[in-house]
Amino acid sequence: MNQIQVSNLSLNCPLWTALVTPFHANGAIDFASLETIARDQADAGNGILLLGSTGEGLALSGDEQLSIVEHICRLSLPVPLMVAVGGYDLAAQLEWINTCNRLPVHAYLLGSPLYAKPGPEGQYLWFSALLEQAAYPCMLYNVPSRSGINLDAETLARLQHFDNCWALKEASGELEQFLRYRQACPELALYSGEDAMMPYLASAGARGLVSVCANAWPEATRAYVELSLASENQGLFPLWQNAIAPLFAVANPVPVKQLMFEQQVLSSPALRPPLTHTELPDSGNLIQQDQLISQWQAQRQGQDARFS
């Protein structure tokens, strides 16, 4: 498959970070922290996904969503920007895409409709309408834990013929489901939507990862993904699986925001209701895993320096 280029930026980067949305303690968007974490991702060379479920996109008003996208666009970062599209109201999502079509973004993440649980034909109608409206390449998103149903593999095979259907984020957590998509759409770029499964899915043909943990560990997570893609897995599985597990001890993005607050990257761990950081009673395991990942990264950097 040819490298897709938009504004001289390749969308086929190995790591996309599903960026959190920082809030002040009073619930207002913390644009200073937002800019800081976006620049941290750009410095690591990671693509940026805005307003996904990790970014609490559905808890934001339309004006707030637009203000976030416009703010990041103004930074002119040297990495691609992807904007999430998701919900239930098709007309509202088409209007959101129409708005973002006028902005200097590079791609869309098209989520399955929430709650409705459509069958294969309903899924096709939903995604085909979004693809027809989108002026940029699109990554479809299979996330049955939120939509209640898997994207049908035959429906995906029909959708892949749209010129702007570029990739799939697969977040079912099931290797068998990934392999069904791989067989049905061998030319479609498949990305893992499960951080801990990246080494396994890389061996099955994944092109990269759309990540939560990269919010806290931008450079280390990129190294984790690159090692997974290179099949250099010695010692990789237990370290990263143990590190990732506490980031999903309660609903995402509660733990990763708490960790970023502990790292003094965010000014507050605040979330929008119904999510709250008070559901995470203890951050000790997060801090311990953060230290282990920092040590691993330092050791890797030391090895690279010796061989450079």
UniProtKB/TrEMBL annotation:
<dbReference type="InterPro" id="IPR002220">
    <property type="entry name" value="DapA-like"/>
</dbReference>
<dbReference type="GO" id="GO:0009089">
    <property type="term" value="P:lysine biosynthetic process via diaminopimelate"/>
</dbReference>
<dbReference type="GO" id="GO:0019877">
    <property type="term" value="P:diaminopimelate biosynthetic process"/>
</dbReference>
<feature type="site" description="Part of a proton relay during catalysis">
    <location>
        <position position="115"/>
    </location>
</feature>
<dbReference type="InterPro" id="IPR013785">
    <property type="entry name" value="Aldolase_TIM"/>
</dbReference>
<keyword id="KW-0220">Diaminopimelate biosynthesis</keyword>
<feature type="binding site">
    <location>
        <position position="54"/>
    </location>
    <ligand>
        <name>pyruvate</name>
    </ligand>
</feature>
<feature type="active site" description="Proton donor/acceptor">
    <location>
        <position position="141"/>
    </location>
</feature>
<dbReference type="InterPro" id="IPR020624">
    <property type="entry name" value="Schiff_base-form_aldolases_CS"/>
</dbReference>
<feature type="active site" description="Schiff-base intermediate with substrate">
    <location>
        <position position="169"/>
    </location>
</feature>
<comment type="similarity">
    <text>Belongs to the DapA family.</text>
</comment>
<dbReference type="Pfam" id="PF00701">
    <property type="entry name" value="DHDPS"/>
</dbReference>
<protein>
    <recommendedName>
        <fullName>4-hydroxy-tetrahydrodipicolinate synthase</fullName>
        <ecNumber>4.3.3.7</ecNumber>
    </recommendedName>
</protein>
<dbReference type="InterPro" id="IPR005263">
    <property type="entry name" value="DapA"/>
</dbReference>
<feature type="binding site">
    <location>
        <position position="210"/>
    </location>
    <ligand>
        <name>pyruvate</name>
    </ligand>
</feature>
<dbReference type="GO" id="GO:0008840">
    <property type="term" value="F:4-hydroxy-tetrahydrodipicolinate synthase activity"/>
</dbReference>
<comment type="subunit">
    <text>Homotetramer; dimer of dimers.</text>
</comment>
<keyword id="KW-0457">Lysine biosynthesis</keyword>
<keyword id="KW-0456">Lyase</keyword>
<comment type="pathway">
    <text>Amino-acid biosynthesis; L-lysine biosynthesis via DAP pathway; (S)-tetrahydrodipicolinate from L-aspartate: step 3/4.</text>
</comment>
<keyword id="KW-0704">Schiff base</keyword>
<keyword id="KW-0963">Cytoplasm</keyword>
<comment type="function">
    <text>Catalyzes the condensation of (S)-aspartate-beta-semialdehyde [(S)-ASA] and pyruvate to 4-hydroxy-tetrahydrodipicolinate (HTPA).</text>
</comment>
<keyword id="KW-0028">Amino-acid biosynthesis</keyword>
<dbReference type="InterPro" id="IPR020625">
    <property type="entry name" value="Schiff_base-form_aldolases_AS"/>
</dbReference>
<feature type="site" description="Part of a proton relay during catalysis">
    <location>
        <position position="53"/>
    </location>
</feature>
<dbReference type="GO" id="GO:0005829">
    <property type="term" value="C:cytosol"/>
</dbReference>
